[in-house]
Amino acid sequence: MLRSPCFKHWHQLPQRALLGVIISLWVAPLALATDNEAVTDTGTVDAVKETVTPITSPYDSRDYRVLTLENGLNVLLVSDPEADKAAASMNVRVGSAQDPDDLQGLAHFLEHMLFLGTEPYPESDGYQRYISNNAGSHNAFTAQQDTNYFFDIEPSALPGALDRFSEFFLSPLFNADHLESERNIVHSEYMARIRDESRRETDVLNQLLNPDNPTTGFAVGSRETLASPPEGETPLRERVIDFYHRYYDANVMNLAIVAPQPLDQLEEWVAERFAAIPDNDLNVPLIEAPLVEADTLPRYIERQSLQNRRQLRFYFPVPDPTDDYRTKPTQLIAHLLGDEGDGSLLAVLRNAGLADGLSAGVGQGDGNEALFTVSISLTPAGAERLDDIEATLLGAIEQLRNDGLAEWRYEEQADLNEQGFRFQQHGAPQQEATRLSMSLSRYPVEDVQYAAYRMDGPDAERQQEYLDALTADNMLRFYSAPEVESDTVSPWFNTEWREQAPDQPGQALSGLALPGPNPFIANDLTLLEGQDEHPSLLIDTPSFTAWHMQAARFNTPSVEWRVSLQNPTASYSAQEAVLTQLLASWLNDSLNESLYPAWLAGQSFSAYPHSRGMTLSFSGWRDGQTPLIEQAIEQLKNAEIDEGAFERVRYQLQREWRNAPQASLYGQASRTLGEALLTPQWSTAELLAASERFDRHHLENFRQRFLDDLYVDTMAVGNLDAELAREQAELMRAKLRPRLTREEIPNLTPLAVNEEHTVLHPHSSRDESLVLRYLQARDQTPEEQATTSVIAQWLDTPFYQQLRTEQQLGYIVNAGYSPLLEAPGIALVVQSPDADSDTIAERMDAFLEDAGQRLDQLSDEALAPHRQAVHDQLRQRDTSLSGMANRYWQATALEDVRFDRRDQLAELVLNVSLDDIKALWPSLREHMLDVRFNPGDEPSDVGDYREARSPLPSVHEQQATP
What we know:
Layout: E1 7-11, E2 48-52, E3 63-69, E4 74-79, E5 86-92, H1 106-113, H2 126-132, E6 137-142, E7 147-153, H3 158-166, H4 179-192, H5 197-208, H6 236-247, E8 253-259, H7 263-274, E9 299-304, E10 311-319, H8 331-337, H9 345-351, E11 355-363, E12 369-378, H10 380-383, H11 386-403, H12 407-422, H13 429-440, H14 460-469, E13 476-481, E14 497-499, E15 536-540, E16 544-550, E17 558-566, H15 574-600, E18 603-610, E19 613-621, H16 625-638, H17 643-658, H18 665-677, E20 678-679, H19 684-691, H20 696-708, E21 711-718, H21 722-736, E22 749-750, E23 758-760, E24 769-776, H22 782-806, E25 812-817, E26 825-832, H23 837-857, H24 860-874, H25 881-891, H26 901-910, H27 914-926, E27 928-933, H28 942-947, H29 957-960
Helix pairs in contact: 1-4, 1-6, 3-7, 15-16, 15-17, 15-19, 15-20, 16-21, 17-19, 22-23, 22-24, 22-26, 22-27, 24-26
């Protein structure tokens, strides 16, 4: 996998959750380890040269140790006794910047080749199968200066995983039999991303940067760039091996492991397996060529976007700030330019109708230089006033030079960072391991956890150096829009672009003002003791329900509130669905300026629409949450909906719907499946058409209708007691005044696939082909869910191995359990740049036919590991307060509210028998729905298909019979 360059936005728009149909292709890899015993070797102690304990939060209960092995390998060990997964990540400080000029994509190709067997484990799928058979997952990515390999696994299988993983860096086979197939996979990955807008922009940007800087090359690779050389030249496989030996070395590697085992045990395992990685005394490759040739600026570039979206970016070459992490001289600058409160650059542009989003930060760093970037999402009116927007940005920068970098502003940022560090929540072990291995690659070992938060004090001289770089003469202005046309095309992502200098200077807009002290900073961050097992009813009336769960296990004084405002007509028609989305979007937009300081201080709010209405989501510190709740509800009920705000949010939604055919093909297929098998659902084309009919007065009238007929569900999960939760819930009930009952709110209903194998086509303008085949189970019972999930896991690895590795159909190949609400099903997905959908479907047919024959030979002993691993996956602990709150919140949407549903399903999985699977298999084969696409296919009328369906039974037919 290739990771594209990304910009570090210190302050971005708070996320707006848009609830749509999410098909969760849950790939639950399974089976128990067979070689999980470590061999103790007293000599391994000598492999460790040094140990260090990094700086950690006082509320972090995990144990840490940083090792430096004798061969130079840095290792960070994290012992988390509560973790139910073990994870490892190896970051190699080598990436696409080291690609030779005549073999672009080589670092990425090498990443792929390391998965294809090692001397002790020569099978090309041996590593993948072991990880998958032990409830794990794995992947890798190549960036400009990093290649990162990572996995997670059932903890008892960690020794065996480390055995296999370490051999990547000791004895890879560079499997000659798979050289051609893996090159095809890399090409498929390239083609799957060729319409990605960020990659298209980077492709043009690389033509403008210094060609001698190696970060500006083509990083992905293709059949063309990785072609076998002419006879007489060094073969491709030898070039791969040469690259590996030239750049891969213990001194440029950093390993992080997060696991429940004790530190001493982890240290022993690491020393045994990684101490033999060669020490060739290599250093991290340095880049000396400038990122930008100074005498080429300023430049004004326009490039064509495929999506109906207009973006304006300003790139300023600056020193790479990575080594300045202790003082963070760019953070305050990025914070003030990216501010969204009253008087901010964004607020001024929004109020003039020119922009609807903005972010600022530093990216594209190469160790010496980087690009400070201000990115502005434009309205159509803004696209006509690029010069005025530039002048306003330069005015905002000048304002910072004059009086923006006062020490109190820096201290306020530092205090907020310290709060974030003290109460940081750890992600899943794999996410943590990857983050930590990257951090270990860039910062001193003692700061591996603290570096992102550390602000020791302002460096005024360094801050001034960055401000001095933000000038009109040191700028690359980059405008993206669909109407741009040119004969000049970028080399790899086929993007038309041109250079277009402005005709005359712009006129800066008035109204810019720097923010004052943040009034939302929390004062009471006391941790309350008390941990409930699950939510319990706090208030239960016919029209209002409140659930509460006190939680202290995440060591943060934070609370997650969810408030579902349900109205029976919210999705009755496409028109009502559009109005519901408009109301939620307007509420977010109208509160953005006033609540942006709250977001900076650790309080966030968002409203998102769903089939029953909308949910208000409050997340953040317990202290100060009550006035936030009051303000949001008051705004929803009584604030004026002005014309500018209405047009802005309608334009944003219309832009999203117009761009839907350009979205990822797999995402489009998933949406089509949801539109076909869930009701009520409306296509993006129907939503777009309906949105054209409305003006501000329609939304005002809808708001009144919506609020007049409500049923309200609420839940509070976090570090608050029942007394405060009840007080806040009663406040909500008094302000919202719900009067309907839950029974008056229609449910989102899963529909049954008929026995006729139907093919639907999404509305897409993509260039690839795809098949998403959905196999639906017989009913929605927990027993059916358990059996279907075990079958999905059993299919996972062979489907990937046969259709991706062996048949090379494409980069995106997946088989997994995919429930639609409570309706169980299995989705098989292949997206291909070469094979058409008929060919893919034929290969799927053959695979399923073969699977049926394998099922006849399947023993209960062979099935047992799959059952166990699905069970273990279901029993995984929550790794964040928000994740736990969302899981419990989703349970309240079901007719039978049960918070132990996941545990119940986990126990049922262990009882799935071969007879259960064999009884369900024929029905799965008989109830299939295909979503297929070839370029140029006409979209199907999914509504007609949906209207002909009946609900999928909630219980098994035999159970339903009196």
